[in-house]
Write a structure and sequence with these properties.
The complex is a heterotetramer, with 2 copies of chain A (398 residues) and 2 copies of chain C (355 residues).
Chain A (H helix, E strand, L loop, with lengths): L9 H14 L12 H13 L19 H13 L9 H13 L2 H12 L5 E4 L15 E5 L2 E9 L9 E7 L10 E7 L5 E6 L8 E12 L3 E2 L5 H13 L5 H17 L1 E2 L2 E2 L4 H29 L6 H5 L1 H20 L18 H14 L4 H12 L13
Parallel strand pairs in A: 1-4
Antiparallel strand pairs in A: 2-3, 3-7, 4-5, 5-8, 6-7, 9-10
Chain C lengths: L6 H17 L2 H8 L6 H9 L18 H13 L6 H15 L6 H5 L5 E4 L1 H4 L6 E5 L2 E10 L5 E5 L5 E5 L5 E6 L8 E10 L1 E4 L2 H36 L1 E2 L2 E2 L4 H30 L1 H29 L2 H4 L6 H12 L4 H10 L6
Parallel strand pairs in C: 1-4
Antiparallel strand pairs in C: 2-3, 3-7, 4-5, 5-8, 6-7, 9-10
Classes of the chains: A alpha+beta (398), C alpha+beta (355).
Chain lengths: 398, 398, 355, 355
Amino acid sequence: MDLSFGPEYESFRAEVQQFIADHGNKSPRQGGARNKDAITWQKLLIENGYAARTIPREYGGYGAEPDIIKSRIIAEEFSKNQINTGLGGQGISMLTPVLLEMGSEEQKQQFIKPTIEGDMVWCQGYSEPGAGSDLASLSTKAELDGDEWVVNGQKIWTSTAQLADWIFCLVRTEPDAPKHQGISFLLFRMDTPGIEIRPLVDMTGEANFNEVFFTDVRVPKHQIVGQRGQGWQVANAILGHERGSLAPPDAAQTRLNGVAKLMNSETMSGEKLIDNSVFKDRLMKLQGRVLAMRCNDMRLLSARINKGQDAKLAGMIVKLQGTELRHELEALAIDVMGEIGLSYGSDNPYLRGNGSWQHTYMYYLGLIIGGGTSQIQKNIISERGLGMPKEPKIEQGG
Amino acid sequence: MDLSFGPEYESFRAEVQQFIADHGNKSPRQGGARNKDAITWQKLLIENGYAARTIPREYGGYGAEPDIIKSRIIAEEFSKNQINTGLGGQGISMLTPVLLEMGSEEQKQQFIKPTIEGDMVWCQGYSEPGAGSDLASLSTKAELDGDEWVVNGQKIWTSTAQLADWIFCLVRTEPDAPKHQGISFLLFRMDTPGIEIRPLVDMTGEANFNEVFFTDVRVPKHQIVGQRGQGWQVANAILGHERGSLAPPDAAQTRLNGVAKLMNSETMSGEKLIDNSVFKDRLMKLQGRVLAMRCNDMRLLSARINKGQDAKLAGMIVKLQGTELRHELEALAIDVMGEIGLSYGSDNPYLRGNGSWQHTYMYYLGLIIGGGTSQIQKNIISERGLGMPKEPKIEQGG
Amino acid sequence: MEFGLSSEQTLLQDSVTRYLAEQQPLDAVRKVAEGENEDALVWQGLAELGIPGILISEENGGLGLGSLDAAVVAEALGYHVTPAPFLSSAVIAPVALQTAGQHQDLLGSVATGEIRIGAALAEGISARADAGVTVDGNKLSGKSLFVLDADADHYLVATAEQKLYLVAADAAGLTRTPLSTIEKTRSTCELVYDKVDAQLVSEDPGVLAKTWDAALVAIAADTLGASQCALDQAVAYSLQREQFNRVIASFQAVKHMCAEMAAALEPCRSMVWYAAHALDEIPEEATMMACHTKAHLSEVGQFVTRTATEVHGGMGFTDLVGLHYWFKRAGFNRQILGTPELLRRRAFDHQQMVA
Amino acid sequence: MEFGLSSEQTLLQDSVTRYLAEQQPLDAVRKVAEGENEDALVWQGLAELGIPGILISEENGGLGLGSLDAAVVAEALGYHVTPAPFLSSAVIAPVALQTAGQHQDLLGSVATGEIRIGAALAEGISARADAGVTVDGNKLSGKSLFVLDADADHYLVATAEQKLYLVAADAAGLTRTPLSTIEKTRSTCELVYDKVDAQLVSEDPGVLAKTWDAALVAIAADTLGASQCALDQAVAYSLQREQFNRVIASFQAVKHMCAEMAAALEPCRSMVWYAAHALDEIPEEATMMACHTKAHLSEVGQFVTRTATEVHGGMGFTDLVGLHYWFKRAGFNRQILGTPELLRRRAFDHQQMVA
């Protein structure tokens, strides 16, 4: 057991700290696509190897060898100093890795640099109203008409669709093939005629997502990643990237401290709630779970650094446990506040933490459902983690 | 809403009270088969209509019309005065109703009177090691050899097998028929050659049950209830009787009061545990659930009295909720006691409540599993209560 | 012996349910929630059925019915997430004024729906933040938070000493500010009092206690209805939604989620009935039952509305299906007039569990 | 950076596991539990591997290993529900005596398994019933309950003032009575002191605190092992047991029960590792982590061993399969040296959560 990164990395940490000391003042307060300051900052980060770190120089990245510890150190120092860590978004987090893995040389040249530099914004077209847990049953279709795909259908849960220049999209191109073999991975511009975007309001009252409708959208034939019918495999090359990040244990710890702070400032009938044994016990119960997940996270980091360690199951359970834990943490905060916990809306002077408790309480319920529901997670854990059989095939008409 | 039984029943209640005043002193302290006092008491009860109340006089019963309210009043008064309510056992609770419903006249004449009077003790042979939730897959077989069934196989969970004179037993007589149509319901003496009884020790450390082994046990051909192959239907005519009684809410209330009493007498570092807010909140949480189940029980009683009321779902959930609730109640008592809660065994001077907390904690875990596991209960609730589909048929080899 | 609803109560529930199903479908609720319509519309419709006066005695111009009748209506309102000031105007105010025997002349107009009386009880129950109401003569100062009904004509106000007063919404020195919450089907506001003229309703803390108990049962009944509707929607959705070439209702995991909801919820119905009955007929159990029923329904309501959302998958998270209205209704009911922890403590204090 | 077991630790765990799997199968455990054999046998076997001396420094005759090594062994012992006085003789006593720097001469014989030191700490932690130990000069009076190891040669005794003493099992005035519990794989007793000669170990409450922390982590590790074995057995059973013409592992309800067990349990492994590491290397977190780890493992252990029993159906309830040994092991671990509620309170008190 060795929790230090060793002396050889301390000079790297010093470098990062120096960068922050020199340039931290340029860190934009708000990130997000289309933000000029954020884009300037992103380019500075790439130049210094703090963003797009392992993406080859020829495609606009920094070109460093992958080094998990260095990435962690960067993350730690940026977080400690509350420095903006650069642009996110699905173009950077999901499409770029897929292009590096499966894209043609031409596609890499065309798309990666503008994407990581924030000049080209993407949205993702995977889920459909009829294809949620069973994503491979998607029915948006693309038919070849001369040199163009003609796309018809509907996508849902498409975040940043209004902002995006391009979409990477799963469509059914071989209707007669088995469902996993009939899908292709297309790229096309969001200003192509025939695309309609409708904001999708969710239970938080915000439109965090959109529905996107395609009517005879014409896409040049060559704008496909991988082969026809290979789209499922292409998409799966990166699907795994999304899971773990939905429930980072450090955020849970920060949130737990927030509940404690709330309990220290809120009172009920004159009693500070931090002195209420019942709420205190609930807080401590949750802290036990947060600590367990933090330790689990250290183990996962270690397994990525030290290839021999097995942490397969430890990785598989993160989303299930982490999202549930966050939901319960937010619920405690709301309970603690009594009526005040109902506040929602910036015009309410009794709003605490900017309304984030109620918001996150609902948002994490969304995360429990989204990105593979808890039911699907349990199927995966039991089948891939514990070696239990898959759902048996059903007799037709049975 | 009318919670009284009405004036017409008050004279009946007075009768019962008079009986208790006159004869209560004869109530045996211990019940159970083979107990002379208990048998004498049972006969007195039958004579006065407080046991075998609705069983026809010609078969040895009291011969009253069924009246749920009168039965309830008897139960209430006996319970209030801690009077022995007469013999139990599966011969009385399960076989007698089945014989009345499906038995031949000869069988009724032969078996009911000695059974209800405690002179003939029965055990039940349903479950097998390989047939638990899927009881109909039982494999103990009986083959006809001349005028006799020859029984081979094994039963499990057979309580009172050592004491029993007779067994009522499900056996497979038509091996080629579909599984629900190949079962017959046999009656035979437990001293028939070829029967071996092995006590089955369970997690409580006691042998509350037995395994029973049959090797070429020869049973006269006519000792069958109903037709050959009809045994499943015969058994199911009474299976429903068992469920509700596993988790009576009044017992839960009594137990809850017991935990409160314990919390009032036990201390931790000098603090009375009834003053510990965390345990108090747990106690109150459980009381909320107990009260809900008591109200549910009143509704069920009412629905039995007033035929128009629908309480189907309310009845279906009793076992699932009730057994879980009891298990958690006992768990609270153990937690409250700290190390002392571990005590088990009459030689331990720190044993509380005769060791019943640990014992019942485990026993109710057994009940959560037994008599239809919680998983089976949930299947039933969703299918029969909520109209959701049955488990679909599986493709063979699928 | 009959434990359950009388045929009159079933009729009452049916008539309210029919009105709400026809006149107040989710689209109509949405319009109120989104500020397009006011809840006055539905309240007027309910007034035609006599609902605002359900607990108001006949001599005071109401229907003169009992707590179980009110619970039955509250359940229907919760089932349809109806935006209406039932809790404050039809339960809290009538119980308080009739128990105190004061200002009953107001109740005739309450029964017809002409006037609404809001409820500012929180400060008499468990003061939060820097709120609190003090009295000097018959003048109120201070403030009340999360007052039920931002559009009332009068307010019933509890002070820290558990006295009850009545103030007019247009009284000099009274400032009313709406407080937005997650629940858009019912409104709350803040009242700030600067020496506001008030009429004493009662100095007896017993009147507040009885009023509180009645409110707790009505809230629990509302949660019962909201949860039942969430469960019904989950079952219906699961029977229609297909994934992996089968309706999701055929997956054991989905079946068991629904079974767990039903198992938790079904006994709550009897509990609400009994608690309502106890308010009128079993005074020695009334407070204990009211506290436990609201606390227990809060827990079950949270579990059921959350699980129903999960059964709906992503659709449950959207505003399209609107399931969140039920989730938030149960969430609101959980927090107001006593969280489960507070009510369990009160339930404990109100019984002699051990000698 | 390496978070996990070193290859030496893996080897250590393997060697203990191999010994227990071969020499101490459930049949052997049963013999001790049913009083046919004594636990001295397995303790002697473990002594040949050096286990009793795992935390005893080399100069005191032990292996001189660390807390994580001890946790790794505790996990293996829990996995095999091994009847052995590991917690008291190999963890509690060595930590106490070495931290205090007193009576270390005893430890050589502890390391070889020749003598055993029981632990009577409960009265220094949270006195129950009428127990409690007082000191006059170096004479102890009073009594200790649920002392770990009914067959020890010496006892480490905590007083209400959190001082630690050592008494010999054969000291004049000492009465030892075994106390039977649900857990038959480890023994407890009552000690009654009538002016018993005792040797002071430490008057510093910090020594008891450090000893307690070490014990908590060892208990948590034992629960981790017991729970892991219960889960492994449940999965294995479900893959072999058929009902309705399919292995029950193919039912989604059973799969999800197993997935929930794994999801709850897997992070506990890392938590135990970290808590053990903190005992030796991160003193400022040691107590907080120890309390949380024992409390959390108690909750998870109860859930896992219960759910594993359910997966086994009726067989889980029988003594035939013997799964109850694991259920009771986790149950015992939950209650001793601090229930979850008590430990969570201590965890709270040991951190500055807010300014």
